[in-house]
Amino acid sequence: MKRIIIVLMASVSAWAQKPDNNPIIKDVYTGDPAALVSGNTVYLYAGHDEAPKDFNFYKMNEWLVYSSQDMVHWQSHPVPLKVSEFKWSSGDAWASQVIERNGKFYWYVSLTHATSPGKAIGVAVSDSPTGPFKDALGKALVTNDMTTHTKIDWDDIDPSVFIDDNGQAYLFWGNTVCKYAKLKPNMVELDGEIKTIDLLHFTEAPWIHKRNGWYYLSYAYQFPEKIAYAMSKTIDGPWQYKGILNELAGNCNTNHQSIITFKGKDYFIYHNGASQPDGGSFRRSVCVDRLFYNKDGTMKRVVMTTEGIQE
User: Fold this and answer.
1) What is the domain partition of the chain in residue ranges?
2) Active site at which residues (predicted)?
């Protein structure tokens, strides 16, 4: 009996001492995560939240990159891309995503345009997932005057790129209206018309992934933002709303997700405003938790934890 008690006490002690692995980056504030699986490594790209404690808006001048081979230990790399790389932009390193194609890495970013009113989408390129990245076009890929679906001038943000099984690449983006278009094989030109998707309470942050013949489109829902998602058998829809995937992100008005499969497990990457001292809507922190599917292909709600991913 004494031996059983000792073993139980040791087990309880080990459970109680689980480290808090969320947020995964604790030395700076980071937001708008986007992950890329390349080989046996995950590369995490995020905007650097630099706003001081009493500054109540975004202050973001650069994007950061981290890498991991186990989703637990994360290595930081030199700053791979700054707003100043885009000479046509006046600032704001908002949400972005990196995709790999033909041995190169393309980084699609949200910026403020210096001469064309409103937000715009740019693209940078590198031979390495950790950079340095250089402006691929010398101009914006998408400008606000190319879309007339809303009256606001910040609706061309949050780019997300998906390459389908047949090799066709698509760019998704938008605020208040979800937009998408094909990309040419060179990855730096739109191919054809810009289309829209009618999604329930769509705010921003579209993310596309595919699993077992289903397309999943997750997005920020309402404001303050939760994450919801829809499913379709084709990338052009129709899309069927499936519900809320993730609740409000701590004391943060926004939510922004990245969904990946790595070494046979599924992960939900997001930002949270309550996981570090002085955190909030403009001082966010990237976190990771497991993602699970139901037998019918729908996704189970993601529970945000402080433990995160454990060894």
Assistant:
1) 30-300
2) 32 (proton acceptor), 204 (proton donor)
